[in-house]
Specification:
It is built from 11 helices and 6 strands. It has about 300 residues and is α+β, with helices and mostly antiparallel strands. The protein folds into 3 domains: about 140 residues, no CATH class; about 80 residues, no CATH class; about 60 residues, Arc Repressor Mutant, subunit A (Orthogonal Bundle), CATH 1.10.10.410. Helix 10 crosses helix 11. It starts with a strand and ends with a helix.
Length: about 300
Amino acid sequence: MTHAGSETRIDFNRSCVPLVEIVTEPDFNDSSEVRDYAKKLQQIFRYLGVSNADMERGDMRLEANVSVRPDGQTDLPPYRVELKNINSFRFMVAAIEYEIKRQIEALEKGEKLTQETRGWNEEKKETYLQRSKEEAHDYRYFPEPDLPELQVGSIKNDLPELPAQKLERFIKEYGLASADTRILIEDIELANFFEETAKLAISSNIPVKKVANLIINNKIDPKGPEPMDIIDDIVAGQIGAITDDAELEKLVKEAIEENPKAVEDYKTGKQSAIQALIGAVMKKTAGKADAGKVKEILGKLLRQQ
């Protein structure tokens, strides 16, 4: 379903596609926890191959129940507001944060909040009322007699390696840093591409960390080169590789001056921003810079600013 001005358009192409709705306990305390949980679900769906979980195509939608309570209160509030049919992680975070603020302001004014469903208006950056929400008994739920009980215990043995397991194995098996490994396993295609390349590296007596650094720093698309191409690039890069500290520092300073946004992001706590700066240096040197030394010099120069 998409909204265009005063029109609502419905795409019936998914009419016969099964829907799975995952409902959690009220275990989240802020919007970042909701975002991280939803992203992890999306990653698992893709690892399992059960869905593309593409938000823009409607393969996955987000909904959140939001209610607030005074500090120290342990019982759940007697109401909840459902934010319905949101199609991006960014919109979900914005909608939750707006709704928390709206509810707090209403309660401070002495207003009574009730069950309701609200949508998110991205243009106005605010939630809006869609309908008052009935209580559960108003829906008149009843068991479906034609649906048999589903036994899921044995399915666990047939599941492929999931992201958390792959993260732990890559760190242990390949000696990679946790931050680098999280980048490599974010997408199942990238994880498989890295591992195939890593096995070739091991057989060629090339450190796996060099493979990881090249893939991460150059943002290699797993649908592009073949794993052997990466090995060839590493071998070629070892010939005439730039390791001179003075030369590397000059290039690092240029990258810092040319990428103020990445520098600012790094200073505000986004550690991953340093990868963009490393990538800028690697681009200047056609991948021949020693990535480890580049990172070390970057850290030193950024701390001095």
